[in-house]
Fold this sequence. Notes:
Layout: E1 3-5, E2 12-14, E3 16-19, H1 29-33, H2 38-50, E4 55-57, H3 66-78, E5 86-91, H4 106-120, E6 125-130, H5 139-151, E7 155-161, H6 165-177, E8 183-189, H7 201-208, E9 211-215, H8 238-241, H9 252-266, H10 270-279, E10 287-289, H11 294-301, H12 310-320, H13 328-336, H14 348-356
Parallel strand pairs: 3-4, 3-10, 4-5, 5-6, 6-7, 7-8, 8-9
Antiparallel strand pairs: 1-2
Amino acid sequence: MRYNLLGNTGLYVSELCLGAMTFGGSGGMWQAIGKLQQDEVLTLVSKAFDAGVNFIDTADVYSEGQSEQLVGGALKALGRPREQVVIATKVRGRVGPGVNQVGLSRSHILSSIDGSLSRLGLDYVDLYQIHGFDPVTPIEETIRALDDVVRSGKARYVGFSNLPAWLASHAVTFAEQNGLARFQSAQVYYSIAGRDIEREIAPLCQARGLAILPWSPLAGGLLSGKFDPEKKGPADARRAAFDFPPVDMQRLPGVLGALRQVAEQTGTSVARVALAWQLTKPFITSIIIGAKRPEQLEDNLGATELKLSPEQLYTLDAASALPPEYPGWMVQFQNSRDPRGTAQSPSEEQIRAAAARLK
């Protein structure tokens, strides 16, 4: 297990993070995602810790608060020193029937952090993240409220999840200009079947020094190795009841074919190859993995030891490459005809490197 710095901080997090979305199963879609109870949660958390994972991610809305309670119960039972564990949770979703029990207002943030700490049984969380976009609340109000959470000692750092690049950039700039706690991380959907963040979000994060924490790296189970793109998959699989996140099903067969080819070459699972591929990306800090069973977790943890050859990486990259989209294709078109350079268009890696130099 390797450890990476969380954004522009001195805090190290393991390259794999244990996601707690499968903990609880309070009803509705949460039962489809996972119904793990305390004994099962304790087993997974203990196994992750033993493998070197020091990072756990949850949210106040996961199983209506049960996930946070179960994480807290596992931490208490295992008795690991608090400073050896990095705990992240999130705020934005609805946590009650009241009109103000949702969103990113100052009122909701300041009450929600207290609720999360109570359920977790902790005095503070290491990373407090906004869980998405709130069209009602000005982002400036949200940033000031998050700064108060940090100054109160209830969170060490703050991050965002599921924001468009323009809004995240504005939020970071506003915080820096006003001496407020700024985002240190971006929790975003990323998988070999969904590489959208490479267009704008990844270059932004590299330029501004934000950690990228991918969620659903196996595309909601589609990259688990159990799915045939011509079918719906196993009847008891999560995708059968909760078909999320969206995936381009026309491109999926090619991606799965490449994954299976490399899995056969390396004698490992499709899921492990998908995670190992993602770990080679220079902008990735910690991948959030979720599991329902110990054997799933063990297989995912094995991705840290899987080394892919340049040829295998080429096979995977080629099968999953993003289709051209403006302004990316225009950047390549213009630079391929720029007399100051070569006749070759800049690669995505070169574009990201240029963004990183803006730091």
